[in-house]
Design goal:
Elements: H1 6-24, E1 34-45, E2 63-64, E3 75-80, E4 86-89, H2 92-96, E5 102-110, E6 115-123, H3 127-131, E7 134-140, H4 149-160, E8 164-165, E9 174-179, E10 202-208, E11 215-222, H5 228-244, H6 249-259
Parallel strand pairs: 1-2, 4-6, 7-8, 7-9
Antiparallel strand pairs: 1-3, 1-5, 3-4, 5-6, 9-10, 10-11
């Protein structure tokens, strides 16, 4: 089976995305103006409805909605990054799960109504990841095929040139922790190596705070032992897309393509 580098795979994904937009014409979401909107999910209410808002207005938490404002009670809106515009969202139950969080909303804007027809909502990366300059790559319990992780990660980070890789995890701003098992939140507290049985079926990535062991972001790819290298690079690509979605058109296209529909019902502890 011929091997294709991850950079080539990324180019193919961009090409397919652009071709799909061209082939499907005005019927496609691309032609309808699908965009990525960044901001914070917040509650607001029309001035005349604030007394009847479904959620009590605690210390002014529910602000007046910007016009147009036709809701009978409190509603969830996207307060854009520049804080000058609050866009209404058509999927209120979906938006509720992200209340108070910085997010990216993928959808189509109805300009006259000031409403985004939401396809998906994706939580933004924490500021600590955005500020980071140095990283350490750690592969936790990585026998057999998982031994390919470090080389694949090094290759991807070398091409990206976003972070400086250091050997000592304690000296890094972030730890990119790879494993064939889900992270238990015990990177700092565990006494000794992970003793769980390793079945090389899924590659997990968790971006950790090296001082607390907290997972700041995580995802996984179930690909089997043959594709550990490509799975590793694809997980790093997810982080890259989120970091560059607002400044890099190619990464924005990849981000929309990957996140056009929710992977699962959001569960953020709300």
């Amino acid at each position: 089976m011929p091997f294709h580098s991850d950079s080539n795979i990324r180019k193919v994904r961009v090409t397919l995305f652009v071709c799909a937009c061209a082939v499907f014409g005005t019927a496609s979401l691309c032609a309808q103006g699908e965009q990525v909107f960044s901001g914070q999910i917040k509650q607001c209410a029309c001035p005349q409805a604030r007394e009847q808002a479904a959620t009590p207005d605690k210390a002014g938490a529910i602000q007046p909605c910007d016009p147009p404002c036709t809701n009978a009670g409190a509603t969830y809106v996207l307060a854009t990054v520049n804080k000058n515009v609050a866009l209404q969202l058509d999927k209120q139950d979906f938006a509720k799960a992200y209340d108070g969080l910085q997010v990216y909303v993928i959808g189509v804007l109805d300009k006259p109504g000031g409403t985004i027809h939401v396809n998906n909502i994706v939580a933004d990366l924490p500021p600590k990841i955005k500020r980071a300059k140095t990283i350490a790559v750690v592969c936790d319990a990585c026998p057999r095929a998982m031994s390919k992780v470090k080389l694949a990660a090094f290759e991807e980070f070398t091409v990206w040139k976003r972070f400086v890789t250091v050997q000592d995890p304690k000296a890094a701003d972030l730890i990119f922790l790879f494993s064939a098992n889900p992270y238990l939140g015990d990177h700092l507290t565990r006494d000794g190596p992970d003793t769980r049985v390793v079945h090389v079926e899924t590659v997990y990535l968790n971006v950790l705070d090296p001082h607390t062991g907290q997972s700041l972001w995580g995802d996984h790819n179930r690909v089997g032992s043959w594709f550990v290298s490509s799975a590793t690079k694809d997980l790093i690509s997810e982080v890259r897309e989120r970091l560059e979605v607002e400044v890099n058109p190619s990464e924005r296209k990849l981000f929309v393509d990957r996140n056009r529909a929710p992977k699962a019902v959001p569960n953020l502890g709300k």
